[in-house]
Structures are given as C-alpha cells and as structure tokens.
Amino acid sequence: MPVFPDLAQRTLSEGSAPLTPDFRPGYHIAPPTGWMNDPNGVVYFRGEYHVFYQHHPFDTSWGPMYWGHAKSRDLVHWQHLPIALQPGDEFDRHGCFSGSAVVCGDSLALLYTGHTWLGEVGDERSIRQVQCLASSDDGVHFVKHGAVIETAPDAAIMHFRDPKVWRDGEHWYLIAGARLGDVPLLPLYRSSDLRTWEFLAYASRGGEGDGYMWECPDLFRLDGQDVLLYSPQGMQPDGFERLNRFHTGYRVGRLDSDWRFTGGPFIELDNGHDFYAAQTLLAADGRRLLWAWLDMWESPMPSKAQHWCGMLGLPRELQLHEGRLHSYPARELTALRRAPLLVDDALCWDGSGSQPLAGLSGDRLEIELQLDVAGCRDGRLGIALRCSADGQEQTLLYYDAHLQRLVLDRSRSGAGVSGQRSVALAPVREPLLLRVFLDRSSIEVFAADGSFSLSSRIYPQPDSLGLALFGSSGGRVAVHQAWQLSSGWV
Ligand code: FRU
C-alpha cells in the first residue's frame, strides 16, 4: 500500500489550523458553533427562561442572521434548542435581525427585523428593514407571519430595527431603533393583537453628541421611574468614558402622556471592554433581568480558530438607586458554587509586592474580594487573575491611588486583547466589596452594592490559572471567599 509521509506531514504542518487553547465558557451562553451577537428575545414561557440570540451557524463571521435559542429552568443550567428563525423569505431575505419575544395567550411570539440588502451585500446605504412576526405553540418550532410594520414613520428612514415589545394593560407596545440621516430616533407603536401597529410618537430623538443610530432600545418601569436603555453608535469618548467602539447605557426619566421620554443624561451601564445590545425581561417574581452580548463589534475574537465566537454576559438583576441603575448577578447563580475554597478572611495582604494565592487557582471561579483603599496612598492595590507560571500573562484588577479609580487591565490577558477600563471611586472611605466571575475567556466584576460593573473578554492560555494579591503602599486586600463554579450546561 503506498504511503505518502511527506504529504501527510505537510498537511499537518502547513494545512491545518494551529492548535489553540479552548476558550469555551463553562457557565455562560455561547453558540454551539459559529458566530453570536445580541441577545434577542429573553422571555419566561411555561416555567422556563428562553434566550434567543443573533447567530450565524455556518461561519465565525457575522453574516445572514439566524436566531439561535437556548432555555433554562433556573437561569443557571442551559440547554441548546434548534435554531428558531432562519432568513430567506421575501420579508427577511438576508437576515432575521434583533427583536424580542413575548408570551401571547398560549403561544410564544417573536417580533424581529427582516433585513434585505437592496444593493451590494454589506452596503448599509441601500437596505430595507421591516418588523416581522413569528409564533410558536411549543416554544421550539416557529411559524413566520411576515412583516407587520412594513414602513418606518418617515419614508426617508432606512435603518429601522430591533423591536422591543411589552404589554401594558390592554395594549402591546413596541419601541424600535431608527436613523433619519444621522439623527437617531426611537419610534414607539401600539397594538392590540401584535399584527396591526399604530405609530404613537418618537419616544426620543438624538441631539448633538448623541451619535447617529441607537440600536436595541428597551423601555421599562423600575421602582417608580421609566428607564430607557439603548445602544448608541457614534458617541465620542470623553476622558475615561465611552472608550469602546459602541456603548450600551440608559437614561432615567418619564414617558409622558404624549409618548415622549424626558430624563437624565445617558449613563453607560457597564464599564468593561465588552458589553453591548443589552435587553431586559420582567421575571414572574417582578425582577427586571438583563442580558448583554459580552463582546464588542470589531474586537479581536481568537476563539474563531475553534469555530465559534461570541457569548452572553451573566443574567443580572437591575435596581434603581438615586437615579442610577444598579446591577447584581442573578441570585440563582449561587447554585453554580462548588465547595468554598476559602473561609472568611483567609487571605489578606497588606504588604507591598506580590503574594501568590497558593490554594486558589482556576478558570471558572467566583471570588469575593475586599479592597481597603482608604489607606492606599500610592501606587496600586489589587489582584492578578489568570496568571501564567512565569508571570508573563495576567489580568489585573486594582485600585489606582493616583487616579482614584478601580482599573481592569487586560494588557497581558492573552491572545489579541489589550487596554484598560476603569470606574471612578473617589472619595472612598468604606472598604470596597467586589464579586468577580471568571469563565474561561471572560471576567465580570460587580461592585457588591451594585453601583458599577466591568465586563471584558480575556483569552489567556488554558494553564494560566494562578492568582496573586499585590500592593505598593498602604491599604489592604482580602479574598473573603472563593468558589470553583460548576458547568451551566445540561
Ligand atoms: C446590534 C445590531 C442590531 C441588529 C443586529 C444585527 O448589535 O447591529 O442593531 O439588529 O445587531 O445582527
């Protein structure tokens, strides 16, 4: 039998993709294969949470959009379901773009944007976007009903997408993102049957400095106020603010009887590198839950070498305190905890230099951390995570005494990524309590009081698992407790 060792060897060394570490999350929602972006349609149906998402199953690049689908009984353990929507009909020829899901009587209804390229594929100057309806009796198989809003309120609007639907009293309401020239608009509609929609008003429109398009709007009542959540494109960075390509944030105010929203300034909801297109759900127990895409447009995605990319952030609970949204990891997530790795105040560091945490390592961890920054007069005080044995790779989370900010630094966080994101802490007298969630290619940091969060992707080597506390002058850092987290997939 002929053998071709040269050919075989050449194929291995030249032809195959280099082996890369596995970045797949253990307890976050990610696609089985291919590309993922926005969460769309987060809904509680017949005792289960359903999360749909923008998906391109055939490729790790964005393309004709499908709706991927996963469900969970407890917000912790997820199961993939068959693809819910695929493009190709006359009204969604080139994509089933973002939208939302609602329970209507006995069925589950999806409102989404049918997207068509009118010119070249990818030419955003010539597109048609219409709002479409699909429904399902079993929560798994969906029947399309075509376009239910075929034209935007102004014929000159071409970008018109991401319908978010909710019920209030006798009516359904729908808010969408739109763009007239470079002016962002949020048209608001009303319906009694999800099929016939009456345009009410533009709930909001952008002004100077507000960007050119607002994607994925959501409008909900929380603790007696109205919250307008959206993802603007085209806002400029300002100091430490708005450093990402695009942003997700909110305004707190009031939707008046003319259907116009007035309120406070736009506030970014998360201060990390990767947080976009968030959407909320009103849970059966009254909690307002939120999911976001834990990535950013045009960011490095090294997991593409493993034939998948994109993941969603942890589900969060929202509360409103003094005009600002506070976010907390959904309380159900404590079910992921295995036996605690540390007992109270097991690890404290108030020296200078670095202290490796010998008994603590891992790539799927929850860590409760306390930073006593009041005494930190100079330099930095914090924790290094996902450290390699030689110290070359590490993700840093620290208080910077000079800036008086909490910094997430991924300059040495592995493949592709870089840069710092931070939040202002001044003036800080109380100890700062943090909850940190590590998954294989992500870090999410929550202030224990909910007042800020930082969410970023990181791509360390699989064996970069170490942790260390570090400081330079004064202050104290303590790990109160830590847990290995179990798998979130059934
Ligand atoms: C937001 C977004 C939406 C659009 C979808 C397309 O990330 O651009 O506006 O519907 O992604 O995948």
In short:
The protein is mostly beta strands and 490 residues long.
Characterise the protein shown here.
- The chain is mostly beta strands.
- The protein has 2 domains: 5-329, Tachylectin-2, Chain A (5 Propeller), CATH 2.115.10.20; 338-485, Exo-inulinase, domain 1 (Jelly Rolls, Sandwich).
- The chain is built from 1 helix and 35 strands.
- The strands form 7 sheets. Strands 23, 24, 26, 31, 32, 33 and 35 form a 7-stranded antiparallel beta sheet that branches. Strands 25-34-27-28-29-30 form a 6-stranded antiparallel beta sheet, with no helix packed on it. A 5-stranded mixed beta sheet has the order 4-3-2-1-20, with no helix packed on it.
- A hairpin with a 2-residue loop joins strand 13 (213-222) and strand 14.
- The radius of gyration is 23 Å and the shape is globular.
- Residues 1-5 have low confidence and may be disordered.
Strand coverage percent: over 45%
How would you characterize the largest beta sheet? 7 strands, antiparallel
What's the mean pLDDT score?
Answer: 93
Task: List the quaternary state of the chains.
Answer: single chain
CATH homologous superfamily assignment of the largest domain: Glycosyl hydrolase domain, family 43
Radius of gyration: 23 Å
Unreliable parts: 1-5
Which class of the largest domain in CATH terms? Answer: Mainly Beta
- For the record, the CATH architecture of the largest domain stands as 5 Propeller
How many extended strands?
Answer: 35
Small molecules in complex:
beta-D-fructofuranose
- The helix content is under 10%
CATH overall fold name of the largest domain: Tachylectin-2, Chain A
Shape: globular
**Helix-strand category:** mainly beta
What is the number of helical segments per DSSP (H or I, 4+ residues)? 1
Tell me the number of structural domains.
2
Between the first and last Cα atoms, what is the distance in angstroms?
46 Å
